[in-house]
Amino acid sequence: MASAISLLLLPSPSPRPLPRGGASGLLCCPRRHRVLLPSPGLVRAPHRLLAAAPPPRASNNNDNSGAVEAPDRLVAAVAYLYPFLDGAHHGRFLLAQFPFFSDLLRPLGPAARLFHSSPLTPFLLFLTLYFAVVRNQRAFSRFVRFNAMQAVVLDVLLIFPDLLAQSFAPSGGVGFEIFQSMESTVFLFLLVCLVYGGGACLLGKTPRLPIVADAAERQKHLNGLLVLAANRCLSM
């Protein structure tokens, strides 16, 4: 009896906390996952990210085929026919030696006959190409005007082989062979300029002819050469 009373008078032991995990953890509510939010100083606004992006670099190639319309391509390509037809006489030795060049250029026969139909035709075409195309910024794009100016400069440069042919025309010997080689070189250069320039224009690309392109960009320094070209057209 006394032992039972002593047991009742003893303080009851405090309950122990349940350990985390284990089987008792199944009866507890699951813990919520914490969402880690970045500090306000690290969050950048979308417009700041767009502003920090570097601007796109301009392409270094000359492919602008998506921006050039079909009429501009055709006009720019046709412009290269003018210097070729004006200097086609430099290929008389090459055409006589290699007849397949004549067959290759046979489709240009009607244009050549029309070009040489009158002594004033080259001069009138020169004035039209320079004043109506090159200097006409409202009607034609820069693509057309630049290629037309290259054609004009190429025709102006024909002054030098023409003067050489008039002053140095040997009838035989080594000098005549050198003269033939020079004439054939001029004709082949004109042919390459026609194929390369016209083909690039039809593809919508801007061709840059050697020597000619730099002079075409500095067209303000060509007034004297343009006068010589006009005199050359009138004297033919």
TrEMBL record:
Q: Which domain of life is it from?
A: Eukaryota
Ranges that cross the membrane? 114-134, 146-165, 185-203
One matching Pfam family: TIC20
Question: What's this protein's name?
Answer: Protein TIC 20
Taxonomy of origin reads: Eukaryota, Viridiplantae, Streptophyta, Embryophyta, Tracheophyta
Q: Which organism is it from?
A: Digitaria exilis
Give yes or no: UniProt keyword Transmembrane. Answer: yes
Q: Where in the cell is it found?
A: Plastid, Chloroplast inner membrane; Plastid, Chloroplast membrane
Q: In what way does this protein cross or attach to the membrane? A: Multi-pass membrane protein
Would you identify the family this protein belongs to, as annotated?
Belongs to the Tic20 family.
This molecule's function is given as: Involved in protein precursor import into chloroplasts.
The record's keywords, sorted A to Z, are:
Chloroplast, Membrane, Plastid, Plastid inner membrane, Transmembrane, Transmembrane helix
One cellular component GO annotation, for this chain's record?
Answer: chloroplast inner membrane
